[in-house]
Amino acid sequence: MIILFIQSETGYDAFQQNGDHVYRMVLERKYPGRSTSYAIIPPSIGEAVKREFPEVRENTRMFDLSNNAGFALTIGDKVFEERNVYAADSNFFRVFSCNAVAGDPLTALIKPNSVVITQAAADKLYGGNALGKLFVTEVNNAKVSYQVNAVVKNWPVNSHFHFDVLISSLSFPQLAKPDYVGFAAYTYLLLDKNSTAASLEQKFPIIIKKYVAGSIAQNFGETYEQFVREGNGYHYYLQPIKQIHLTSNLEAELSPNGSVTAVYIFAAIAIFILLLACVNFVNLSTSLSVERAKEVGIRKTFGSERKSIINQFLLESVLISLFSMAVAFALVAFFIPFFNQLSGKSISINYFFVPVHFFALLLFSIITGVIAGIYPAFVLSSFNPIMVLKGRFKSNKQGLLLRNGLVVFQFAISIILIIATITVNRQMGYMMGDKLGFNKDHVIIINNAFGLKQNTQAFKDELLKIPGVSEISKASTIPGGDGFFGVTYQPVGSKKPVTGRGIVADENYAKLLGLEVVKGRFFSKDFPSDTSSVVLNETAVVELGLKNPIGQRLSSPDLNRPGAPPLVFTVVGVVGDFHYQSLHQKITPLIFNYTKQAALANLIAVRVRSDDFQSVLKQIENNWNTYVKDQPFHYSFLDQKIAEQYLSEQTTQRLFTIFSALAIFIACIGLMGLAAFATQQRVREIGVRKVLGASVAGIITMLSVDFLKLIVWSVLLAFPVAWWCAHNWLQNFAYRIDVSWWIFALAGTLSVVIAMLTISFQAIKAAMANPVRSLRSE
């Protein structure tokens, strides 16, 4: 199952025919004291790169039109909502591979208002045959018609992006305007087969100097060299598309990506589980050596060679491994739906029915059988037949050391997994907990608030009449969303701009989320001047250098227009820092503007006191349908939006916990086998002790002490390795828990308890055995 998971994770975008030569161009934007990397870049940069460097065969772009909120389109009298709608350049399918169902994707987007859709979208919107059909949507308050010029097969699941509808970018004239500083386009380059990404990246500073520097001078009133000296800068680089899913974690990703760390973790667990199973086989086989010793002695007495005995035991081991593989196939077939539900995958066991994969697994099973059986085979075949048949067989010192060493290894792995499991679960609890700086629970998010137009206030007033609704706020985005836009502000009279994130919100935003206003106040209807006011978070106050922020005046180069006086904003309040982005990223400056200052508020957030969400949602939807006729009602929950930021970590948490528990269980089986062997070896000693008056408790203690020593050794080996693993994994998060001492104390205690419970059965059984029977059998 782990192999299937890893194969799925590492196979993203492998279906692309040009995949080895297609790269996404991304940007690291440097700010004074920090930097942020973006999956979107200015729309004109890609074309400039293609124009300047002949090794670039194609440059194509995508623009997100649905922004995870849904894209409303009308066909006849029906309104539909599509989630994955993008504007794409006409050469999109010269870069990316597809399977055409109808029409020619290569030429489908060369005209404005032309569209390519997937088969699933065609079935949903048109009932199948979609070629030449039209749909209507609203653009800038005007109805616009689009024609379907091609239908392609559904985009594969294992891609770093997914689309249902692609609209020609020529349909939007504003996308053709030169723009070298505004982030908007997902840009892909198809390189010549003889070119490398590294050599092309070295030339990107030429693009910055030639195309970006002038825009910087115009927007910020300073040269690019001065801009860089202040700690700013642009660093463009390329990502191979086959590596995006596992290695990219940038702002504005097209979909939640996986984690190469998770792949390494699960690969390690797979190896550990297999090693633990092999160790168990060795321990259990040698534990049964007394029972098979007479067999070996008799066979040697009758002339069997050691070679044939070794071959017999190896064959037994391989047959057990092959039979185990057959059982494993049946178990995987049974559990695969449950596994897919846990991992969010669509994994199929059919991967192993490819002849090459099947024979590789068969060979893998044989090799595993040989590795597991080779030591028992040589040990069992080495018995002296005379000593065995006289009943004087006993395990040698080297065999005892090996078995003890294997148990130490098993429990060291188990302790590492216990510590890792606790760490992963605590970090996930921290990220999803109540230390985010705002209240994420009981908040419903209504998208596409633009559709309300002039009815926004009436809609809000109606919602407040619904029993259970306590607060309503209109804003451009919400924590966990992608709508925090880039802004630059500087104190009036200063020449040191600070770039951070911007949000447009109304007067209820802070109250709805439970934000802490640490200085001044939040926006209010009672202050008409708030249309030219801003509220800052604490990080913005520090980076702007405002010792007494309330009343300070700020200007923004982004909003200045040539020939017009600069716009000036007054700071009226400061809110405490809160995690408006994921905990992977440091909190950056955040500037609030009042909604009446700009029409960017595309969502409405509703706080609900009642637990009867369904009733409240139904009433909200009824009100929506009253005011909005051409867009379907679309909602989500804030706590779900927060959770979506950590899909990869949540998958890792669930699967890691399950497989770790399995590995620990396997280690316990091995310990039980060794306990059985140890008590079997000391049957005479136990009998003599009981005859001489030893108590059951004393014998149990005697048998347990030796194993306890092994666990102590396991703890000493495991702790430094576990700390190193936990510490390095936590470095993926800007905000994280500490690796506390009590985690190690708990893991050590759990390992001792698990070990004692495991061996107690054998120890009690041996301690309570009839000594007369034990001595007679000896």
Report the oligomer. Answer: single chain
Helix content: 40-55%
Contiguous uncertain segments of 5+ residues: none
Task: Provide mean pLDDT, rounded.
Answer: 84
Report on the architecture of this protein.
With 778 residues, this protein is an alpha+beta fold.
Please tag this protein with its features.
single chain, alpha+beta, elongated
Short summary of the structure?
The chain has 778 residues and is an alpha+beta fold. Helices cover 47% and strands 18% of the residues.
What is the fold's blueprint, element by element?
Blueprint: H1 2-10, E1 22-31, E2 34-38, H2 45-52, E3 56-64, E4 71-75, E5 78-82, E6 85-88, H3 92-95, E7 100-103, E8 114-118, H4 119-126, E9 134-139, E10 142-152, E11 165-168, E12 186-191, H5 197-201, H6 204-220, H7 224-229, E13 233-240, H8 241-247, H9 260-287, H10 289-301, H11 306-343, H12 355-380, H13 385-389, H14 397-431, E14 443-446, H15 456-463, E15 469-475, E16 485-491, E17 498-505, H16 509-513, E18 517-520, E19 533-537, H17 538-544, E20 553-555, E21 568-575, E22 590-594, E23 603-608, H18 613-627, E24 635-637, H19 638-644, H20 647-681, H21 683-691, H22 696-730, H23 741-767, H24 771-777
Parallel strand pairs: 6-11, 8-10, 17-22, 19-21
Antiparallel strand pairs: 1-2, 1-12, 1-13, 3-6, 3-12, 4-5, 7-10, 8-11, 9-10, 14-23, 14-24, 15-23, 16-17, 16-20, 18-21, 19-22, 20-21
Helix pairs in contact: 1-9, 9-12, 9-14, 9-20, 11-12, 14-20, 14-22, 14-23, 20-23, 21-24, 22-23
